[in-house]
């Protein structure tokens, strides 16, 4: 609040990005992230195996960010942030394991911007399998409903907007891309994108000012950095 009781909004730049375990061009990836100038980055397929902490820390350092939470304990979901964000809490959780499938999880952070603007951030990467993905979507929404602050969910949904889980998330929350489309729409595959399977979803208290695949980074870098394109959302708290 201001001295006269007027609500002061805070803008936050959030980037969601499946980085395919850094298996593509790491230099292009760094350039893409830096060009987006994010306050918060929600990663999927972040380093999670041998020396994963070192690789994650190196990516954060090279992009001018710090690691907040996630990695191996949350099955490759991770949150990075800039120094604008004060970290108030973190959580690393996993979904129930389905035999024959990859274990997946959530990286969660409670962040504060300025004196009073608080935001719960969730990085997610849902299953390739319909039934498992639906169950994960319901558990994700239950967690968001329990937060005591406004929230944003960002990640690889592994499903188009017409899919049941994507529609469920967009019904309970606000699909930032639908609310404020700016930039490109399709996120996969990076070299010739034709599907939107990555998204940013906002709860009450978070307004999307813009959302889409950023156009500022060099197109060659976008194609080389990962097999997904990033999603950049500008949010007002």
TrEMBL record:
Pfam families in the cross-refs: Exo_endo_phos
GO MF terms held by the record: endonuclease activity; hydrolase activity; metal ion binding
Sequence intervals crossing the membrane: none
Keywords: DNA damage, DNA repair, Endonuclease, Hydrolase, Magnesium, Metal-binding, Nuclease
Any coiled-coil regions, as ranges: none
Keyword Coiled coil found: no
Domain Endonuclease/exonuclease/phosphatase: 15-228
Any single GO BP term: DNA repair
Domain of life: Bacteria
Cofactors (names): Mn(2+); Mg(2+)
PANTHER family associated with the record: TRAF AND TNF RECEPTOR-ASSOCIATED PROTEIN (PTHR15822), TYROSYL-DNA PHOSPHODIESTERASE 2 (PTHR15822:SF4)
The protein's name in its UniProt record: Endonuclease
Organism of derivation: Streptomyces sedi
């Amino acid at each position: 609040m201001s001295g006269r009781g007027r609500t002061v909004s805070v803008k936050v730049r959030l980037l969601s990005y499946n980085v395919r375990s850094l298996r593509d061009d790491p230099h292009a990836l760094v350039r893409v992230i830096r060009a987006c100038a994010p306050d918060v980055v929600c990663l999927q397929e972040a380093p999670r195996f041998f020396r994963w902490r070192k690789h994650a820390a190196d990516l954060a350092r090279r992009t001018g960010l710090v690691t907040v939470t996630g990695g191996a304990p949350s099955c490759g979901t991770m949150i990075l942030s800039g120094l604008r964000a004060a970290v108030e809490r973190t959580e690393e959780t996993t979904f129930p394991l389905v035999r024959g499938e990859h274990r997946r999880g959530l990286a969660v952070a409670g962040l504060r911007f300025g004196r009073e603007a608080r935001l719960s951030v969730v990085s997610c990467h849902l299953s390739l399998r319909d039934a498992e993905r639906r169950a994960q979507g319901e558990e994700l929404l239950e967690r968001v409903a329990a937060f005591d602050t406004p929230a944003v969910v960002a990640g690889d949904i592994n499903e188009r907007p017409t899919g049941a889980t994507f529609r469920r998330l967009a019904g309970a929350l606000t699909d930032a891309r639908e609310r404020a489309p700016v930039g490109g729409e399709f996120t996969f595959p990076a070299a010739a994108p034709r599907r939107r399977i990555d998204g940013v979803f906002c709860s009450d208290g978070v307004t999307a000012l813009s959302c889409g695949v950023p156009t500022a980074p060099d197109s060659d870098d976008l194609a080389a950095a990962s097999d997904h394109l990033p999603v950049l959302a500008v949010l007002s708290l």
